[in-house]
Amino acid sequence: MKYYKCRKEDIGKSVLEILISEGELLPETPCGGKGNCGKCRMKLKGNICPASDSEKALLKEEQKDGIRLICMARAEGDFEYEEIKNESSAKIQTDYYCKETEIKNRNSLLAIDIGTTTVAMYKIENGSIYEKTSFLNPQRIHGADVISRLVYASQGGEDSLKNEICNAITKNCEKEFDHAVICGNTAMEHFLCGKDSSGIAKLPFIPATLFGENYSFDFCKNTFIAPCIAAYVGGDITLGMLAAELDKEKEITLYIDIGTNGEIALKKGEKILCCAAAAGPAFEGGNIEFGMTATKGAVERVYAENNTYRYNTVGDSEPEGICGSGLIDAAAVFLELELMDETGRLCEDKYYFGEKVFISQKDIRNLQSAKAAIAAGIRTLCYEMNCKVSDIEKVIIAGGFGTHINTDSALQIGLIPYEFKGKTESLGNLAGLGAVLLCLNNDKERLNTLLKNVEYTELSGNKKFNEYYIEEMMFEY
Fold first, then answer.
1. pLDDT tens across 363-403, in order?
2. Which of 34, 42, 127, 179 could, after both became Cys, cross-link 103 (CB 3.0–4.6 A)?
3. Do 37 and 128 have their domain in common?
4. Of 210, 235, 260, which residue constitutes the final position of a domain?
5. 274 - beta bridge partners?
6. Residue 158 sits in which domain range?
7. Torsion angle of alpha carbons 410, 413, 416, 420, nearest 10°?
8. Are 132 and 211 within one domain?
9. 230, 285, 326, 369, 387 from 474: Cα distances, Å
10. Are residues 46 and 117 in the same domain?
């Protein structure tokens, strides 16, 4: 336990607010500290206000062990708190299938992919990567999804969001770099650069800027921020498509980055049509009762054996929760074992993994909504491009989450169409690769040429998308 001497101005503040200001590592806060998810559990002692009825309801029996929800527990004086260990065990995807490139820049270089949940950094010297660094995005304390953080920004949190990510990057840099390339979704790039993000959060979804220009930071005075396509199709997709060489593809090709916001691109002929499907945080463990990131104790694999389900956890330890890949596997296995029907109705209220971790009916409904959004987005692009799902010849799955999911399970539950069986390839962190390649070859001309062929279709209010979304709610193929 660590002692905190409470200052006068701390009285009445939540422990979450206090520990954020102290820069401490914190438990998951997917609801952004609103007291809804019940996941910011921490052992506390000392001068803390009594638990409210709503906090007690979320904690249940755990309150007897001194566990409190730090978003609801308010300081009344000095207190002690349980330190959180560094989350270096998180499975953060930094690898990719490497492409060769002409090296034009041999300076000290830095390539960064800022994800909603994770950040991947690549340090380069003399044309070679000498270190890969990854960490969880510190902004997640304001919510697991982009929308929660946009709300926080609108309430005066823009400076905090900028400082949190800039400080985290600087902390992981041992020197100032000559040149850097950074990509992320449009909101993450706005937060990084301190831009007004309010236009992203409301119709007609117009960002303050689409970037594609240089900015200055403490870690690098010459930093290129990747160009975005729309409010919800960011620079991570732009550079990912560049790394996947989507501009050179002759086949009808689908590019998909599955996450809290599923960005999808369909290439047919010279044209590339993009959309963003709001899947929500279920794939990252948000809105799931025992959902968590892929850290130690997370159920990451579920499989059928001897007419029952078995599972593996990160680190082969006792189950602490379940991450997105485990959730998708579980749904596929429940279907296979007839523990769940095609409507998503479970035969029992809960299915347990160990003594305390379980998947509930509510969790399945959240997964259902997320997978329907992705599948409907794919079908909408096909409709807009006047082609069938079966016409797609190649499917590129990008991103850390896409790399870790079992493709067969994704096909089984209808997250991606069953027509894609045998056509998919998971290429890892293509956004990170795109940032590395652009650092090395400085080929902004090719990037600009690719962007000229890209068009965006808005799914919000799209009649066909809404039709497909309802159809894709079923767990069948």
1. 999 999 999 999 999 999 999 999 999 999 999 999 877 77
2. 127
3. no
4. 235
5. 265, 456
6. 109-235
7. 80
8. yes
9. 30, 21, 19, 10, 23
10. no
Tokens of 140: 């997640």
Q: Could you tell me if 285 and 293 are in contact, meaning their C-beta atoms sit under 8 angstroms apart?
A: yes
Residue 198 has pLDDT above 80, yes or no: yes
Instruction: Kindly report the number of other CB atoms within 10 A of residue 43's CB atom.
Output: 14
Question: So what's the pLDDT on residue 100?
Answer: 66
| Angle CA 228–232–238, to nearest 5 | 35
In a domain, 177, yes or no: yes
Strand 424-428, strand 394-398: pairing: parallel
Is residue 453 a part of any domain in this protein? no
Q: CATH no. for residue 214?
A: 3.30.420.480
**How does strand 213-217 pair with strand 424-428?**
unpaired
CA distance 120 to 126: 20
8 A C-beta contact, residue 183 and residue 226:
yes
Q: What pLDDT is stored for residue 223 in this prediction? A: 98
Bridge partners, 121 (sequence order): 112, 133
CB 181 within 8 A of CB 224: yes
Per DSSP, what are the bridge partners of residue 273? 266, 455
Distance CA 21, CA 209 (A): 30
Cβ pair 75, 3 in contact under 8 A: no
* Residues 237, 240, 245: CA angle, nearest 5 degrees: 125
Residue 406 is classified by DSSP as -
Residues 6 or more apart in contact with residue 86 via CB below 8 angstroms:
25
CB contact burial 222-254 (16+ within 10 A = b; e otherwise): ebbbbbbbbbbbbbbbbbbbbbbebbebeebbb
**Residue 240 is assigned to a structural domain of this protein:** no
Q: Are residues 51 and 116 in the same domain?
A: no
Which residue among 183, 215, 235 closes a domain? 235
Cα–Cα distance, 3 to 44 (Å, whole number): 10
pTM greater than the 0.90 cutoff:
no
Q: What are 226-253's pLDDT values in tens digits?
A: 999 999 999 999 999 999 999 999 999 9
Determine which of 131-135, 168-172, 257-261, 334-338 has the lowest per-residue pLDDT on average.
257-261
Length of the chain: 477
**Which among 267, 256, 206, 195 has a CA at the least distance from the CA of 232?**
206
In this structure, are residues 321 and 38 in contact, taking their beta carbons and an 8 Å threshold? no
